[in-house]
Amino acid sequence: MPSAVDFVTVSTDGLESSPVAAALAGLRANEARYFKNKYDHVFTVQPAAEAESTIAWVSRILKDERDIVIASPPLEAADFQVENIHFAYVFYRSGLSINVMYTVDDDGKRAVGFKLSDGMEIPDELSAFKFARQKSKLAGTIRGSYFVIKNPY
User: Fold this and answer.
1) Which of 10, 13, 81, 115 lies in the 20 to 30 Å Cα band around 107?
2) Are 32 and 45 in contact (CB under 8 A)?
């Protein structure tokens, strides 16, 4: 059952098993605020067990594009379309958030983004990426990176 993410009252519901649960909850709330402000879209997540197809799609893109396999187990995922862009998010126990931005039009932008919660180390599988820092009132310091998707999915 999908649940809306509240970015006013940040909750760790669904993320309690993460060692950086509060920071990951802030990161998730930061994404919810972004989509509400930019697209007037309510960001909803569901437990990983109910989002297997979304997690499989994101995992396939990571494996096919860059031979990346995430070691941490997924906790939650989100999958939705706003305007002509398909978004998929996976939140992992380690504090990692991965999102896929996939423009439906053939000539549109398509990319995978990585965000690290405050307090987590860079996972070995992402050590080749350079991470930029940004400040967030909800999530503290977010470190992020991305790559462009080259193939259709």
Assistant:
1) 115
2) no
CA 26, CA 94: separation in Å to the nearest integer?
14
* Positive/negative CA dihedral, 108, 131, 94, 63: positive
Beta carbons of 124 and 49 less than 8 angstroms apart: no
Q: CB-based burial of residue 61 (10 Å sphere; 0-12 exposed, 13-18 middle, 19+ buried)?
A: buried
Residue 123: pLDDT band (50, 70, 90) is very high
Q: Tell which wins on pLDDT, 105 or 20.
A: 20
* DSSP state, residue 51: -
Give the count of beta carbons closer than 10 Å to the beta carbon of residue 132: 9
Q: Name the residue among 125, 101, 94, 112 with its Cα closest to residue 23.
A: 94
d(CA 122, CA 131): 9
Token representation of residue 2: 């999908």
* Spatial CA neighbour of 99 closest among 69, 71, 119, 77: 77
Phi and psi for 45 in degrees, rounded to 5? -125, 160
Segment 78-104 mean pLDDT: 97
Residue 1 clears pLDDT 90, i.e. is over it: no
Residue 136 is predicted with a pLDDT of 86
